[in-house]
Specification:
Bound molecules: D-sorbitol-6-phosphate, zinc ion
Number of domains: 1
CATH architecture: Sandwich
Strand content: 35-45%
Largest sheet: 6 strands, antiparallel
Radius of gyration: 16 Å
CATH superfamily: Jelly Rolls
Number of strands: 15
Strand order of the largest sheet: 3-4-5-13-8-11
Length: 194
């Protein structure tokens, strides 16, 4: 029999955190190579190294069929015209899909199909349920003025492959144009992968 502490984690909307979660904090310096405009990144980092996002993950069990989940909170901000974002990853176990649910703020999920490289952005807002299929790189982007908070639920065996994204980055990025988020091909890359 599981005890209640293993089954229950409470979300605090005031702080955007789950109790009992193991926290990870990513600052701007941790995101080198993620933003398209390297000059704007270096200039911003010379001034400050703010927290860009936090994730608290809960891993109740590790068996086949088990689930892990986490709450992410991405701060508002931009580097040049590109909105603050998460590193992004593929799942190490490629078939693993993920379910996202928006809790607060407004943003986009940036998705990239590993098989054909097709990019897509999907709105993520309170009450939005977003399905991230397997074999799809995913990154969360805050396009609003307040923290973007969301729940993600994924197979325990999914794992994270950050290396593929760190090497090549996403093919597209979400930038501000006339006050609106738009998806554009990423330029100004130092690495040619695609
Ligand atoms: C995990 C899930 C999320 C991310 C979070 C931070 O599979 O997709 O909890 O971990 O959005 O993003 P990243 O790319 O730094 O893990
Ligand atoms: Zn994921």
């Amino acid at each position: 029999m599981w005890n209640t502490d293993q089954l229950l984690s409470r979300y605090d909307p005031a702080t955007g955190t789950l109790d009992g979660a193991s926290p990870v904090e990513r600052r701007l310096a941790d995101l080198r190579g993620c933003f398209a405009d390297r000059g704007a990144f270096d200039a911003a980092l010379a001034l400050d190294n703010p927290v860009v996002y936090r994730v608290g993950s809960v891993a109740p069990a590790e068996g086949e069929g088990d689930l892990h989940y986490g709450v992410g909170c991405v701060m508002p901000g931009r580097i040049g015209d590109e909105y603050f974002l998460t590193k992004g990853h593929l799942h190490a176990w490629r078939p693993a899909a993920e379910f996202y649910f928006g809790l607060a703020g407004e943003g986009m999920m940036l998705l990239e199909d590993e098989s054909d490289g097709a990019s897509q952005m999907v709105p993520l807002r309170p009450g939005h349920a977003v399905y991230v299929p397997g074999r799809t790189a995913h990154r969360t982007v805050n396009t609003g003025l307040v923290p973007l908070t969301y729940l993600g639920v994924y197979p325990a065996r999914a794992g994270h492959d950050y290396a593929t994204i760190e090497h090549c980055n996403f093919r597209a990025c979400v930038v501000e144009r006339g006050g609106q988020p738009v998806l554009v091909p990423r330029v100004r890359s130092g690495v040619v992968c695609h």
